[in-house]
Design a protein that fits this description.
Elements: H1 8-33, H2 50-61, H3 80-90, H4 102-115, H5 125-134, H6 141-157, H7 160-170, H8 180-188, H9 197-206, H10 220-233
Amino acid sequence: MAPVRFPRWLRWLGTGALVSALALHACLSYSWITLPDVRVLRRDYPHKTAFMRLREDEARRDGKTPKTTQRWVSYDRIAPTLKRAVLVTEDAAFWEHDGVDLSEIKASMETNWMRGSFLRGGSTITQQLAKNLYLSPTRNPYRKIVELMIARRMEAELPKARIFELYLNLIEWGDGVWGAEAAARTYFGVSAAELSQQQAALLAGAIINPRIYSPARPNARLMRRQQIILGRMGDMTPPVLTPLPIPQIQTSPALPNLGPGATLGGGS
């Protein structure tokens, strides 16, 4: 019986698919073995993140002097009101998932497919921290894959409370304003430990785009977000956890660049 011969175009298609699969596997394998060592984050605080460098570069291009306002505080020195507000706004399932919320990813894929563009990210707090520390804010599928891998590594190496502590200390909250303590003092003249529910909800509502939604001058949309967050905060009770002791602040090794399309090019 003569062997079955497939049409030439089908053979070319199969070969192309195999080569593409091998190339993708090689790319992902390389990305995995070159991921940053997140274990240094157990005790060290990064001096600058990729997002900070990006904002500094943007300021210089605009002929401005970069400014950074930030003050590190431990997990237990951040008001429970802000923790609840941020969780209900950004990642209500944070304490249950392992860095990736599959239900949110599914919802984001469905939304992006329907809209025909990459608009909804579905990122968890851990993914956002990975992006802020090491990557760029570009809506790039490859960058998203690297973000997922870093997030999973963070969840494997760091306690949940440490991840949340880093996130709340590094997140951007305005022009040159980084972290909960700087935001609380800049906008309300209080420490992060003293934030009221209304203040916390306003800060959480601004996370979506802190360069547009300013707690100092809240517009109508930010005020609506504040009210929605206030209505949901009662359903969220962050666990009382024992955080790692806050060490003497030191500069971690330079955060690495992770390849074309995923990094800031020396600049999230």
